[in-house]
Design brief:
By secondary structure, the protein is an alpha/beta fold. Helix content is 47%, strand content 16%. A 6-stranded parallel beta sheet has the order 3-2-1-4-5-6, with helices on both faces. The structure holds nicotinamide-adenine-dinucleotide, 6-O-phosphono-alpha-D-glucopyranose (G6P) and manganese (II) ion.
Length: 433
Amino acid sequence: GIKIATIGGGSSYTPELVEGFIKRYDELPVRELWLVDIEAGKEKLEIVGNLAKRMIEKAGLPIEVHLTLDRKEALKDADFVTTQFRVGLLDARAKDERIPLSHGVLGQETNGPGGLFKGLRTIPVILDIVKDMKELCPDAWLINFTNPAGMVTEAVLRYTDHKKIVGLCNVPIGIEMGVAKLLDVDHSRIRIDFAGLNHMVYGLDVYLDGVSVKERVIELLSNPENSSFVKNIEGQGWEAEFIRALNVLTCPYHLYYYKSDEMLEKEMKNFKEGKTRAEVVKKLEEELFELYKDSNLSIKPPQLEERGGAYYSDAAVRLISSIYNDKRDIQPVNTINNGAIASIPYGSAVEVSCVITKEGPKPIINGDLPVAVRGLVQQIKSFERVAAEAAVTGNYDTALLAMTINPLVPSDKVGKVILDEMLEAHKEHLPQF
Ligand code: NAD
Ligand code: G6P
Ligand code: MN
């Protein structure tokens, strides 16, 4: 049987994952699911772990659920390790959002200064996990969902010799589902050629039953309701002429780059009203855990769909199943570039449509990105690389460099002010600085 270890098991997304394993049990016979958390997440782990047990019992499946604070015990002989942890919890996310905004700069979980600091807190932990894996389950696949997923994947590829890592995001699958809905067809009929980076991914073409419908879909993206496919970002329609000329599908995070002023204005309003996303999610999470506590509940409650990570379980479990079964189907994931996108370094992580095999994902996009988007993608990749280096070395100058080359940061001076304030605010979770 298969052993899965899930780091950050107390996450409110765990019922999603469990639902995914239940649905695909026939093709993916999971025998042990180890949910790992830390002391600070103990209560959440117990609540969500008990719900997981009830869900599995109701399904009548022989999957053992283990709850533990001992990561090593969970990793021992695991076949797949999934990560969904948040260093510093939502309080840290609120700081990532609020401190930049207090200086007039976008504050967001994975973009701008917030994305940098989430990376600085997360990368040392992921490198530690990989070190443990080397000792306890060297052949296991690491399926990383922890944000910033692109930067984290980059760091593992660059700073460890563990090559069995796949970074995963629900945005591409969310776009596929969203496009299917727009065209009022079943999602299985839609295919999109994805290429770019995590949260900086483009749809180079989109097909309905194998025939390109890109022109039609692009036209629909100028409607504000259609420009975001995730719950955590409110849409704003693209100028029709702009999106037509860009001639590729955007992802919701592009709003921060091609509509920077408008998005900043929105976030500033949220900031002043105490409603940045972390603050909204805190309330959502409290409600969710109240539901999870109910011993009569043995399904994933629909309220979880208010979180940005919808379809996460589908994405994670179909990926694990395709690796395990050597399915060779196409899925968009973060993996080593190896020349798939010519203008991105060979050894870097990219988010591209891949054939998923037993040896891992093989990118199927070959060539380069359109010239209009190439530069931004390269800039974000440079940011991710410099940020990962800062996370590993704890070097202040490198951190300031990462901060300043981020396209959402207006100057080195403002960058330094934000950097200093954030280093202080997060120091408990930044032992390397
Ligand atoms: P959360 O705040 O519920 O945290 C999950 C758990 O991680 C908590 O129970 C916490 O105690 C635990 N944790 C913290 N530090 C840990 C450590 N060192 N070791 C083990 N566990 C630890 O977070 P969430 O909202 O469920 O999100 C979890 C992660 O998934 C975040 O990093 C988030 O950004 C990411 N996420 C990614 C995507 C994606 O598209 N890739 C989508 C949604 C969420
Ligand atoms: C998504 C992204 C994630 C992000 C999440 C935020 O759509 O793909 O990477 O972290 O939503 O969701 P939340 O509900 O926590 O704001
Ligand atoms: Mn994501």
